[in-house]
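Take a careful look at the protein record below. Let me know whether the structure tokens fit the sequence:
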Amino acid sequence: MAGVPPGPDAAVPPGPAADGGTLPEAGGPSGARAAAARFAPALLGLALGLLALGPALGPGFVLRYDMVFVPDPPPVGPGEGFPRAVPSDLVVALLAQVVPAQAVQKAALLGIFVLAASGAAALVPSRRLGPRLAAAAFYAWNAYLAQRLLLGQWALLLGVAGLPWAVRAAAHSVRGASAEAVRRAGRTPGTPVTPGTRETWWARAAWPVRLAVALLPAAVGGFQAMLVSALAVLPVAATTRGPAGHPPPAGPPGADPGSRPADRRRTGVPVKPAAGGGSVPRSAGRAGPRRSSSCSACRGWCRPWAAGR
């Protein structure tokens, strides 16, 4: 019996090629493309930071209004120095014990652009690279960031740069159990999660940690950076629907998942009296196939007409 030739989408095992080389493994280019798309916003932010800072990344320190970096800065505790500079100056002094203080300044300035670009791209619901790069560019390259940077307010810009990550962490934590928690429990996405189960506990225990990590740049920035983050994170956490671990209620079998719950009550077929005293469906005798009552094109709005009204 002759074998069926493989189709164009069949996987090709790695092996010697006709020209003496080696064929690549299946899925290699797609994996590299996915990795490039994942890190593209961060790389774009790094490029924008290099373009914006320019000579400021050279040897030495940059002194600009509120931006004051010195060699071997002393640790500043509570009650010492300016209150608005206590968190940021303390972190800079601790990091300067390990690496040079000028390297800390350069890393902080470049980190603002990388955090802002990657965070803005993470908030875009589309997986397409174009919209994500556009959001990254507009959030990391604008007049507000340039003005605050010229005033030397790098600590405030740390909170602004980490703001998208904080909003994303607050929205995901309140919305429900994450996909990772469902995967850890061995369930498929969409499986109902009841209160008290392992994944519910995991979601409620993990989201404060994720939110605290996302707010870490704002905490380093100080009071103004935390205030900017709170003004955005608190409304998101208060208006996100659904408690942790509770997905939206599922409809009857075969119902359109995108339709409203009120539109899922019409599951039967109306009947009308027949000539012999019985009853037949109202659609009997009509020409052509009847339109389904679960229409995905209009998301269920055509159901009253499909029922015969």
Notes: The mean pLDDT is 73.
